[in-house]
Design brief:
about 0% strand
Length: about 200
């Protein structure tokens, strides 16, 4: 997701520069923070699910049981930094809670770059530890079911799936609203004013 998201933003930056500025620093920047919030939540909840699975199925002296809690704590901190808004006045609620205009911790460079890197690195580390803890076992999911249903883990998976769907919806919403905010239907080709007659219901003479 971060690789695809980076390429997506690069495309927006060079093909729709006004929309890019609106999205990253302008009035729609809070929508980008919403996407960051959902992505970080996927990484944190996914790692929490892995930690629960390892604690239920691995040996008590396994190194994975020691590494994963620390990794999960790093992910939580990275998630909070990654989702922080930089321009507080653009947040629909934050602008009413504080007179401050800028949040120094929400800077894209270097804070959010480090946070995104931590989310990717430690998320991948947790996934590798999760796979390694079950290496050599056949049908480990069946043995887990034999020990009883873990309803909490199932609920975590449902929430992760919901966050993934909301992330995809939010990304489309982000770009379209950023483009429309600058008055474009198709950037550099057609403006919303060009289509005014169609949505105002103007009749032909």
């Amino acid at each position: 997701m971060p690789v695809i998201g980076y390429q997506y933003l690069q495309h927006v930056r060079y093909s729709e520069p006004q929309a890019f500025h609106t999205l990253m620093l302008g009035a729609r920047s809070w929508l980008f923070d919403l996407v960051a919030l959902l992505y970080g939540l996927i990484a944190v909840l996914g790692s929490w699910y892995m930690l629960r699975a390892i604690r239920l199925s691995s040996k008590t002296d396994s190194a994975d049981r020691l590494i994963l809690p620390v990794s999960l704590a790093v992910l939580v901190v990275a998630w909070l930094v990654f989702a922080m808004p930089y321009h507080l006045q653009h947040g629909p609620v934050l602008s009413r809670l504080t007179d401050a205009a800028i949040n120094p911790l929400g800077k894209m460079q270097p804070n959010k770059y480090f946070a995104a890197a931590a989310l990717v690195f430690f998320g991948l580390l947790n996934w590798i530890l999760f796979l390694r803890s079950f290496a050599g076992r056949s049908s480990w999911w069946k043995t887990g079911l034999a020990g009883g249903q873990d309803r909490a883990s199932q609920k975590i998976l449902i929430v992760i799936a919901g966050c993934a769907m909301l992330t995809m919806v939010s990304m489309g919403w982000v770009r379209e609203t950023a483009r429309a905010y600058n008055g474009y239907l198709i950037y550099g080709v057609m403006t919303l004013a060009d289509e005014r007659a169609t949505y105002e219901g103007r009749s032909d003479p």
